[in-house]
Amino acid sequence: MAELIECGSCGNEVPPGKCRVCAFVNVDPRAPEAVPQRARVRHGQDELIVLDDGAEVHLGRMFSHKAIKEALRPYDYVSKEHAEIVLRGDRLFVRDPGSKYGTKVGGVAVGPEGKDFGLPVTILLGPSGHHAEIVVEWVS
């Protein structure tokens, strides 16, 4: 039987790999260290920020990185704290803490429990047809 490790997301004791409780992909801490992943967050052609592995960023008109706030300010239907993103290894965790108009990734609605996605992703903030579009992709 494989030795158990603590899941980096939910804290349960699980074997290395995909957590059977929350689906987070855990890496065995005894494995050789992987090259850190970096991803860029952009709106249109404008690069807003670069995320290092483990970075947590809020997407919204108020409680965000300055460049994100400025890019989203014109969108009245984007909440002050609309969504959160976290780069976790080769996955992006996206969570909507309860915005008025919702968050979608690849047509999938994201709620307060959040979901993991592979990159690149396009995050739609706001109602269909009137959304702000944020793209998260690997830095090459």
Plain-language structure description:
This protein has 2 domains: 1-31, no CATH class; 38-138, Tumour Suppressor Smad4, CATH 2.60.200.20. Helices cover 5% and strands 41% of the residues. The chain contains 1 helix and 14 strands; from the N terminus they run E-E-E-E-E-E-E-H-E-E-E-E-E-E-E. It has one helix spanning 66-72, and strands spanning 5-6, 13-14, 17-18, 25-26, 38-43, 46-52, 56-59, 83-88, 91-95, 103-105, 108-110, 115-118, 121-125, 132-138. The longest helix is centred in the middle third of the chain and has 7 residues, at 66-72. The model has no long low-confidence stretch (mean pLDDT 87).
Counted by DSSP, the helix tally is 1
Number of strands: 14
Overall number of structural domains: 2
Which geometry do the CA atoms define?
Answer: globular
> In angstroms, what separates the terminal alpha carbons?
38 Å
Q: How would you spell out the order of helices and strands?
A: EEEEEEEHEEEEEEE
Q: Give the CATH class of the largest domain.
A: Mainly Beta
- CATH fold name of the largest domain: Tumour Suppressor Smad4
Biggest sheet: strand arrangement: 6-5-14-13-10-11
